[in-house]
TrEMBL record:
Keywords: Cell membrane, Membrane, Transmembrane, Transmembrane helix, Transport. It comes from Aquibacillus salsiterrae. PROSITE patterns: ABC_TM1. It is a multi-pass membrane protein. This is Carbohydrate ABC transporter permease.
Length: 280
């Protein structure tokens, strides 16, 4: 095969890959764009055939209707507090547990780790009634503690951290630190934590998005409007008689913005965690 033919094959292959990536990117971004378009148009433009495909001039009007219907900023603040506190708690406690499972030897270690993995197979809906009973006994209804405290530990977080620490923190480095007189917590804080920053970023994105989008449990325990998270508050935009899609999608769009910001902030570290194994 001539050199020209090889170059043509390489060019065709690269073109195919870029076209495929472009199509995938378009399919991923289009729902967000479509949500923004509906958030900026009047309800009649959304329901027309064909529907509006370009942004309109109703963005401020639709968002004003959202503010007049629900306590949008109060619900956003509640979600931000809950998601941030739970994410920080999960990163700390799950990394501690993962470090212990990865680098310590203790009786029942394998059994406990398998038990944690088994809990990942249980649907969270099965624990709804006993959790509600406990929250009621603690008098935590309509309190953000009912969301925060049960979410501070996560089985997937322990599994993720254990696997990452096992493959990225050398045992020899841990043993050397012990010989130098470091305590277990200092080994974790000064040796393990700097190495697992990419794992932190990945778990933070996953957990923040999960907590922010959670609807069922906050709906059960947060009944007062002042304590509701954004997903529960958005339900109040749906009227039984008049459905204003522009207003609904306006509230949904602005409720999605914090997720985009968090992903952009942690994007580089997230990609680093995905490519680190390939670089090795």
């Amino acid at each position: 095969m001539s050199q020209t033919s090889q170059k043509n094959n390489v060019l065709i292959g690269k073109t195919f890959i870029y076209v495929l990536l472009g199509a995938a990117s378009f399919l991923s971004i289009f729902p967000l764009y479509w949500m923004f378009v509906m958030a900026t148009n009047h309800n009649s433009a959304i329901n027309s055939i064909p529907p509006a495909m370009l942004p309109g001039n109703q963005l401020v009007t639709n968002f004003t209707n959202v503010l007049n219907t629900i306590d949008f900023f109060g619900a956003m603040w509640n979600s931000l507090v809950v998601s941030t506190v739970i994410t920080i708690g999960v990163l700390f406690f799950c990394s501690l547990a993962g470090f212990a499972f990865a680098k310590f030897q203790f009786k029942g270690k394998n059994f406990l780790f398998v038990f944690i993995l088994v809990t990942m197979m249980i649907p969270p809906q099965l624990g709804l009634i006993p959790q509600y009973f406990i929250i009621t006994k603690l008098d935590w209804l309509n309190d953000l503690k009912a969301i925060i405290i049960p979410g501070l530990i996560d089985a997937f977080g322990i599994f993720w951290m254990r696997q990452y620490i096992s493959s990225n923190v050398p045992d020899e480095l841990v043993e050397a630190a012990r010989i130098d007189g470091c305590s277990n917590f200092r080994i974790y804080w000064n040796i393990a934590v700097p190495v697992i920053i990419p794992a932190f970023a990945t778990l933070a994105i996953i957990k923040f998005m999960y907590v922010w989008n959670d609807f069922l449990w906050p709906l059960v325990v947060l009944r007062e409007e002042s304590s509701q998270t954004i997903q529960v508050a958005l339900r109040g935009l749906i009227d039984a008689y008049v459905r204003d899609n522009g207003m609904i999608l306006s509230g949904t769009f602005w409720a999605t913005v914090p997720l985009i910001v968090v992903f952009l902030l942690l994007n580089k570290m997230f990609i680093a965690s995905l490519t680190e194994g390939a670089v090795k």
